[in-house]
Amino acid sequence: MTEPQHQPGTGPDAYLRDAVAGSMRHAGDVSQLLQGGTQRWTDALLSEVRAHLSGCLNAVEVSIGLHMGDSWLARPVEALGPGYCRLAIERHPAVLSPMLLDHLRLRAAAAMALRMSLAWPSVLEDGEVAPEPSLANGALSEAMTGLRLSVDPWFAAHPLDWPMRADLTAEAFYDLVWAAAALLVEGLTARMGVECGAAMPVLARAAEAIIARHDEQAGPFARAAYVATLARGEGEAALLAEQAALRHDLLLLAALGGTRAAIPLEQAMALLVDGEPEERAALARLLGLSDVAYVALLDALAPIQEAADDSVLPDIAGRYRMLMPDEAVQQLARWRGPAPLVAKLSRMGWKRP
């Protein structure tokens, strides 16, 4: 694992470390919170989360500016300068909710794994479309193409001052838009001398208009869930899972595994990224991953969490080979239930006896 190089409160991602600490205020020791527990925050993962947060904030801020139209508030908002929200969030990390941070963390982990694989985007540099696994199901093949296109932007490193398509889940997107609106209200009152009571209604209308136009189904998480819904056949699901592991496609693996285990996609993704080794192996076994694909999955997770030493990989593969499907089902049973309840228990680091 790449150990954190900065103590909490320092470094370019310090505000994110503070936001993580603030989102789990029951933890008294911030250092222990960031370097231990059920979530591991390596420098690489923090930087990726920062890129996604900055890019999505930039996109939302541009949208808010466009929705200003000929409003009297358009000029003061423009005067704050491009990328104001991205910079302001570093002064106000508390505006980031635990739910939004959790989603950005999973999104960033999926992006990191894809970019560090030897796979290719759907649209290559010369404009050609990359080959897909051979699927007889036309609807499934089309859904796979849509998923690949939705994650294509993740293959490229993203400068902090560029906008990124904010195709988050509905709840995370709503939270992000209101966070951007709050940052702009604060900036207008503190820097432009605009009265808070006058700015709030205008920005609220812009935020509501942006939220109303958001299409969650066009985002990668929804598209991955749709692919998993269509891949009901044993052969199709197994083929897609094997290809996903070799491509380091954590999002598709989580969607397929969640469907097989009857647990929500984001919970399945959290088990891959932050779960115990036994839970990760159980999810892989339900998907029928080969030994080679399972090792590829562990390799995909190496930059995100503690990576096993290469010398113990044969032992890990041996234990995985001995794991039976019925044992895997039992291992994952505790994560079945209403998504909000399971999510709260997961944040508590809960272990069912």
Compact description:
The protein has 353 residues and is mostly helical. Helices cover 63% and strands 0% of the residues.
Task: Give a description of the structure.
The chain is mainly α. It has two domains: about 160 residues, no CATH class; about 100 residues, no CATH class. Helix content is about 65%, strand content about 0%. Helix 6 packs across helix 8. The protein starts with 13 loop residues before the first helix and ends in a 6-residue tail after the last helix. The N terminus is likely disordered.
Helical fraction equals: 55-70%
Low-confidence parts, pLDDT < 50 over ≥5 residues?
Answer: 1-5, 24-37
Q: Please, how many helices? A: 18
Mean pLDDT: 83
Strand element count: 0
Radius of gyration of CA atoms, rounded to a whole number: 21 Å
Cα end-to-end separation: 29 Å
Report strand %. under 5%
Largest sheet properties:
none
Order of helices and strands: HHHHHHHHHHHHHHHHHH
The total tally of domains equals 2
Structural class comes to mainly alpha
Identify the overall geometry. elongated
Task: Spell out the blueprint of helices and strands.
Elements: H1 14-23, H2 30-35, H3 43-68, H4 74-79, H5 84-88, H6 98-115, H7 138-151, H8 170-191, H9 196-213, H10 220-230, H11 234-247, H12 250-261, H13 265-274, H14 277-287, H15 291-301, H16 313-322, H17 325-332, H18 339-347
